[in-house]
């Protein structure tokens, strides 16, 4: 008789509600505001990584809790816009302590730093932000 093997149930991967909404926002941005999409970056801090890769990324400067999207686009009194994006409720996740700390740190440095929940809200946050007057900006020298 063969020994009984313990079989572990495969863990169900959590559903990514946030990713598809953020992709939809970036596509909308590219179509309607291509000049703003060009100065927007996504910082891929989230996701699962093995310990070696996580340690390597940390040494390279990855910071836990940094906002999902940053627009290097001054408006009004702000240097830029940083958005911590969450999926549309009820599928939104809680804002973690380190995310709140980053939003405050960026606010203290002159950025508009906010949480946006869902596709509709992130579009409104962006539209409200760009409605502020743009300061005089010098052209970069190559």
From TrEMBL:
<feature type="domain" description="VRR-NUC">
    <location>
        <begin position="5"/>
        <end position="120"/>
    </location>
</feature>
<dbReference type="InterPro" id="IPR011856">
    <property type="entry name" value="tRNA_endonuc-like_dom_sf"/>
</dbReference>
<keyword id="KW-0378">Hydrolase</keyword>
<dbReference type="Pfam" id="PF08774">
    <property type="entry name" value="VRR_NUC"/>
</dbReference>
<dbReference type="InterPro" id="IPR014883">
    <property type="entry name" value="VRR_NUC"/>
</dbReference>
<keyword id="KW-0540">Nuclease</keyword>
<dbReference type="GO" id="GO:0004518">
    <property type="term" value="F:nuclease activity"/>
</dbReference>
<dbReference type="GO" id="GO:0003676">
    <property type="term" value="F:nucleic acid binding"/>
</dbReference>
<protein>
    <recommendedName>
        <fullName>VRR-NUC domain-containing protein</fullName>
    </recommendedName>
</protein>
<dbReference type="GO" id="GO:0016788">
    <property type="term" value="F:hydrolase activity, acting on ester bonds"/>
</dbReference>
